[in-house]
Amino acid sequence: MTHWIRFRNAGGSIGFGTLDQHSGRVVQHEGAMFDRPRPTDISFAADDLTLLAPCQPSKVIALWNNYYALSQKLDKAPPQHPLFLIKPPMSVIGPNESIRRPKSYQGKIAYEGELGIVIGKTVSGASVEEAEEAIFGYTCVNDVTAIELLQQDPNFAQWCRSKGFDTFTCLGPAIVTPGNGFDWRTANVVTTLEGVERQNYPLDDMIFSPAEQVSMLSQDMTLVPGDVIACGTSIGVGSIKDGARVDVSIAGIGTLSNVLAV
Amino acid sequence: MTHWIRFRNAGGSIGFGTLDQHSGRVVQHEGAMFDRPRPTDISFAADDLTLLAPCQPSKVIALWNNYYALSQKLDKAPPQHPLFLIKPPMSVIGPNESIRRPKSYQGKIAYEGELGIVIGKTVSGASVEEAEEAIFGYTCVNDVTAIELLQQDPNFAQWCRSKGFDTFTCLGPAIVTPGNGFDWRTANVVTTLEGVERQNYPLDDMIFSPAEQVSMLSQDMTLVPGDVIACGTSIGVGSIKDGARVDVSIAGIGTLSNVLAV
């Protein structure tokens, strides 16, 4: 498995490359992450870099009710097709960036730790096999939600608004490519709030697998490199106090850490 | 008022420029439409060009229940804040491009004629006055909907899916800048199906005005140049038979014509 990151270096330049988790060294690459990236002879200590969101999606497709445990807890039947909303590109932030409370909103803000699928190829109408090949890798997602807005209007569930605010899609720290030691089927999503574990659920409880999601969603809309599908969350969602830190960890990917700014 | 268009010329090159409606001539511009475009000495007869969607939004924000007449007909209270969903960039097509029925869907496909606001400046947390200045212009929108999917799942209204398919956001034919003869307050949206009028509603029946929409939405999320807000539709929505043509016309902007491909 390879860990791909985007970063800003000490001089302020933005780049991307691969992170060696043992040595902590980053090898800068040139070209494009999703189109024949080539290693350069420039490398950095990861500690000297500011990590950015590892990709810049044209859209983030966020699933609801995609885990059997949560569907049982909510007493909602598992869906026949992925149920989703779309989060806008400007909602994306990277590791260690602050989640900002909307000025207009004083209600509860919820964390949702999730697996994120990162698309590597333009794909439309894909079979499950083709979809598997279109998956570049996986990252951690905190799908932040202004939860009290969701049902504020009795006639219209405000999924896009409650999840679409600037800074409400935390991505990172890295994109791990599948194979060579990383298999989502054996991983858990672990979410901690101020260091206390709140979510710890197995990814193999997923209703629609990553390749099934990519295949089914690609029947609806063309997916392009860098797009992210947030696979939905499971039980243990809760709210973040102002100033509190949320860590979303998936073994093999890393830990995505973000604070809700005071 | 100026009519901005994007086009492909006979040689296959993509460009943008201004259309003189009397002479039918297009003056190609260089630079960027939203950042100090400069006229070139190249011009074309509009008839020799293929019109494209007049902008390439990073997101399309589509409002629901934004006209008093429709809210009365639906017996839903006017909302306190714009109710919206997000349509992905790949859903956008231009004038005369075909709407494509999703292979997976045999149900009714609805037209919705709407006014589209095109954003000209990056804007966040804008006052209504600042929002007014961030509006580059207006275009026609056909907000196409796979209407039978919307309530297919009893637990989750599928707004993003039913409206997010490739080719389900028709934009054009031009973006008209406000002032000098164009005022949305005095215009109607007229939608015809196979030449028969189905919608004809005044824009001044809008619940949230364009500047109010831009101001309120910009409190939630940063809007960027080229983004489109579809202002919602009013009464007269209906379904399109395969092969039928829908024309959305707004006096001063033009007519947006699209066929649902057989």
Automatic annotation (TrEMBL), chains A, B:
The keyword Nucleotide-binding does not apply. One of its GO terms (molecular function) is hydrolase activity. It comes from the Bacteria. Residues 59-259 form the Fumarylacetoacetase-like C-terminal domain. Residues 3-54 form the Rv2993c-like N-terminal domain. Keywords: Hydrolase, Metal-binding. This is Fumarylacetoacetate hydrolase family protein.
